[in-house]
């Protein structure tokens, strides 16, 4: 049995799991592995093919409404674990152990977010120190007014 599965996430296939074989057909025809009985779904809409027991290929078989992979229309594309296939109102998530999800494990995705608050604190402290120096140097009489107002003596 193949370790690859399609997990239904919406539409008439929600919460259903479909194990993939060497060739897996999606469409409205009775001979399809997943039958989608909806307007706009071709009899043989799309096909998933196992290549060399280690790669999966998704092909749109010339359907009028198209096949979406991760939100984009495709004619043919290699699949990775976690990919979302969308036909009609049905969506599936590919569960493929061993197929590295390249789009998830990119350097940008694993980069730690930059914390802004240390820089804000630093620059606020620098600005306050500069203001204090300027007051002491150019307006020393303000120090007496501030001390009298606040009562710091």
General description of the model:
This protein has 153 residues and is an alpha+beta fold. Helix content is 24%, strand content 31%. It has three helices and eleven strands, in the order E-E-E-E-E-E-E-E-E-E-E-H-H-H. Helix 2 (117-138) packs across helix 3 (140-150). The longest helix has 22 residues, at 117-138. The radius of gyration is 30 Å and the shape is rod-shaped. The model has no long low-confidence stretch (mean pLDDT 85).
SSE layout:
Layout: E1 5-10, E2 17-19, E3 23-27, E4 34-35, E5 46-51, E6 55-60, E7 67-69, E8 72-74, E9 76-79, E10 84-87, E11 90-95, H1 107-110, H2 117-138, H3 140-150
Parallel strand pairs: 3-4
Antiparallel strand pairs: 1-2, 1-11, 3-5, 5-6, 6-9, 7-8, 7-10, 10-11
Helix pairs in contact: 2-3
State the gist of this model:
The chain has 153 residues and is an alpha+beta fold.
List its traits.
153 residues, alpha+beta, rod-shaped
User: Which strand order does the major sheet show?
Assistant: 2-1-11-10-7-8
Question: Taking Cα atoms only, what radius of gyration do you get, to the nearest Å?
Answer: 30 Å
Q: List the uncertain runs.
A: none
* Helix-strand sequence: EEEEEEEEEEEHHH
* Count of DSSP-assigned helices: 3
Query: Helix share of residues?
Result: 10-25%
Sheet with most strands: 6 strands, antiparallel
* Total strand segments: 11
Structural class: alpha+beta
Can you tell me the overall shape?
rod-shaped
Overall pLDDT score: 85
């Amino acid at each position: 049995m193949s370790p690859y599965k399609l997990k239904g996430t919406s539409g008439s296939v929600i919460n259903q799991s479909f194990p993939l074989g060497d060739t897996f057909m999606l469409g409205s025809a009775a001979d399809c592995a997943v039958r989608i009985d909806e307007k706009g779904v071709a009899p043989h809409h799309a096909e998933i093919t196992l290549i060399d027991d280690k790669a999966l290929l998704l092909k749109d078989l010339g359907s009028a409404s198209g096949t979406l992979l991760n939100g984009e229309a495709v004619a043919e594309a290699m699949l990775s674990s976690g990919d979302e296939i969308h036909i009609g109102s049905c969506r599936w998530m590919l569960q493929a152990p061993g197929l590295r999800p390249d789009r998830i494990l990119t350097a940008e995705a694993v980069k730690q977010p930059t914390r802004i608050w240390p820089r804000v604190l630093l620059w606020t402290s620098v600005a306050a120190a500069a203001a204090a120096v300027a007051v002491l140097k150019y307006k020393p009489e303000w120090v007496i007014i501030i001390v009298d107002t606040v009562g710091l003596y």
